[in-house]
Structure formats: C-alpha cells, structure tokens
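Quick start: what a row looks like.
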Amino acid sequence: MELIAEKWSGAVSVVKIGAAKDEGGTRSNVITVGGEAALPFLPAEGALPNKPATAHEIWDITPPDWPEELNKAYKNVFADPVAWAQKCVKEDKARLLCVRLQGAHPDFGDKKPEDEAKLIGRLLKEVDVPLIILGCQDDAKDNLVLPACCEAAKGERCLVGSAVQDNYKTLTAAVLADGHNIIAESPIDINIAKQLNILISDMGLPLERIIIDPTIGALGYGLEYAYSIMERARLAGLSGDKMMACPFICLVGQEAWRAKEAKAPVSQFPAWGAEAERGVAWEIVTATALIQAGADILVMRHPKAIEKINKYIDSLF
C-alpha cells in the first residue's frame, strides 16, 4: 500500500541568528532555523533543511525561584552572568545563548538600561556564540532596556524579544535600526499571532526576521493546547499564508520547571521518584513533544536535558 504524501504550496521562512565576521559581526557560528516545506519529520513530503536548535538560558541575576536540582547545575556562577555564559559555552558546548534580563524588572533590582547594555556588550566580547535577548516582561521597562541592548549589540544579528500586540512598536523600531531579529509573542492564539506579524511587517521588518513565540505549557499544563495551536499555525504557513510561515521559539525550561511535578520534594511525593531525575525528565519530554509540533528553537535550562534533546534531534535527522 502506497502512502499518500501531502504537497504544500508554502514554506517556513528562514531566519539567521548571529553574524559571522564576514557579515560584519563577531560570532563564531550562525544559527539558521526554519525553511521547512513539510510538517515535522516528514521528509518525503518536502524539504526539512535545518535542525531545531537548543539555547541555554542564563539570567542577569540569581534566579529567585529555581528549584534546588536546577540550581545545582549553575549555583557556582549565578553571581556572574558572564561566567555563567562561559560555562555554558565551554563546558556544555552551547552554540546559542538566551539571556533573560530579569534584573531590569522593578521588582527584581530595577537595573538601568545602560547597565543591561553594558552586560550585553561584555557577553558579546567574552563568548562568541549568537545571543537571544529577552526582556523582563515589564513593558515600560523593556521599552527602555531592549533598545539600549539592541544598540550595544548592533551588527551581531541577535534575536530580541518579546514584542506583544499592545507593545511592539518600540522594539520593532530598535531591531530595524540595529539589524536584529524579533520575537513576536502571542497568548496561545493563532489569530493574535497572525495580526501581530502583520503589524510588525507593516513597520518594515521582513518576515525573515520574525520568530513566533506561541507561548506554551509544559507536560500536563496545557501542552496539548499549545501543540494544537502550533500545528494549526504551521499548517496555515505551509498552505501559503506567509504571515504564519515563521519559525517557532518555545521557552521550554521556563514552563517545565514551574510544574509541581518537576520540583516538588520527594519527601512530599515519594511515589514520584527522585527530584534529580524527575525535573530533567519533565523538561526532556516537554521539549520532545514541542519538536514534533514544529518548534525551531527550544530555550532550555538543565544541561542534562539539553544534552539529551540534542541527541534526540540528531537521531531524528
């Protein structure tokens, strides 16, 4: 019996993160995502030119609420984001870093835009992999911090986020001016995701510089709904809707490690097994499902989970 292969009229746009020396930047490698002309891991139906990429998440402050098992991996470098980044690159072989500027939030230190810009400058000098730069999720502060960071990283083609429907103009203008890519974040809503891409592209930013954050849930916490939204968006993009044909970024570590099952002490739930294995497994399984949904970039936290997912991606290809 011959399997019927779908034929698609569209393809996901290709986005490059990081600029090498011959492109005016200083990065040792460039991360290329997107380009799919078929649903995930169906090469008989169309080209799948680029593997999903993993990014190690680092913070500009010591994370106040990470569980102990996750803290063990990084507690010796929490006080210095540059040392943290160097550990990820040198010891864990990270090829992409995601820097969360949580210290800029008024409730977490209220760091000044110029201080965060200096940190980005130091990171770019001390590590040579591409950067994803995330704000503190306070719109007013991000409108000050992220443009300063874009300027500090000018020419390095970072991925900067997040732009949301009610607060996208300032960041879009900044990434346009300084040559970066943008994360368009929508609250698990395909219609808002499309509208936001339209608004951003109307300001002059090409679709090849937009990556969608559909927002996700972890295993057991809305993962099924997030999966269905990603699948619908990918089907629309492959069917010819260019506004939906953008790669996906998923904040896997953030969602997986906030799940009770990932961090609850074994003393309270002995039947759940050891914390050292449980939290890592929760992050791995969440990432695995999202890869099948079409995730192009997975921002993750535990080095063991990242190692396993990289091997899983290699095996799929």
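That is the whole record. The chain has eleven helices and ten strands. The CA atoms of residues 74 and 211 lie 28 Å apart.
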